[in-house]
Amino acid sequence: MRVLITGGSGFVGQRLCRQLVEQGHEVQVVSRSPHRVRDRLPGNCDIRDSAQAFIESPPDALVNLAGEPIAAKRWSDEQKARLINSRVAATEQLVALCEQLKANGQPLPKVMVSGSAMGYYGDQGKRVVTEKTMPNDEFAHRLCKQWETAARPIEAMGVRLAIVRIGLVLEAGGGSLEKMLPPFKWGLGGRFGSGEQFMPWIHRDDLVAAILFLINQEGLSGAFNGSAPHPVTNATFTKTLASHLNRPAIFPVPAFVLKAGFGEMSRLLLTGADMRPARLEEAGFSFQYPTLDKALEAIL
């Protein structure tokens, strides 16, 4: 199978590319700077600067993971626009590729697995969140909604679309733990605000396995929550992480400090959703790391 990936040089994309290559698949990667990312990916990956550059070798499947990191900068109006545009533009590029393939009479991909995020639901308090839960209207939701909407036209061309609303991705060497580990290792970790907000999370290996599962299961389409079946509150996450590092976690960060430092972006730290992977589990997907203890034991 030939798989075209946007965001292939990212934290999740790198592992996905390696898994696909190990399984004998042909991997195509879209990157604005192919020469800069080549050393991050398996040597036989075909890396080009646009999806349209692959028009002569049509992919069998698409995986859309591209997008500027949501927590990299304070959310000014300009930064919000960049966050949305980086996701929508990459998605529209894949849709345009399919339109061009169709116009040329070339075979279309059979499936597109397109990224989204837990932010789709916005702040949900303590209620259990499945794919049927109505979202809370705030910036994170609007960003994810536009991202998902940009992928929808592909369905009208007969391409199966599966959308993955991804939780916090855990693994060594990047993702959500990269900035969290140093203060915890120094014994300076603590909960954010009240600590009652939920943190849906997923081990990177489980997320990659879920993406492959959605590619291969022909009957699956629509939205899927890409998170482990046992989300935890921020307070529990904090205690569990500190315990695995044999360190205390006695330095909570007050909500007002986060709001002063990060502005609206502080909602990423102070709100959350008790998000469950209902549709993945119903479809028979099995998690290698269903609990935070098991995930952190493997990582640390």
From TrEMBL:
Organism the protein comes from: Vreelandella sedimenti
Name of this protein: TIGR01777 family protein
Classification via Pfam families: DUF1731 (PF08338), Epimerase (PF01370)
InterPro entries: DUF1731, Epimerase_deHydtase, NAD(P)-bd_dom_sf, SDR39U1
DUF1731 domain segment(s): 253-299
Matching CDD domains: SDR_a8 (cd05242)
Domain (NAD-dependent epimerase/dehydratase): residue spans on this chain: 3-218
The family this protein is said to belong to: Belongs to the NAD(P)-dependent epimerase/dehydratase family. SDR39U1 subfamily.
NCBIfam families with a match to the protein in the record: yfcH
Highest taxon listed in the record's lineage: Bacteria
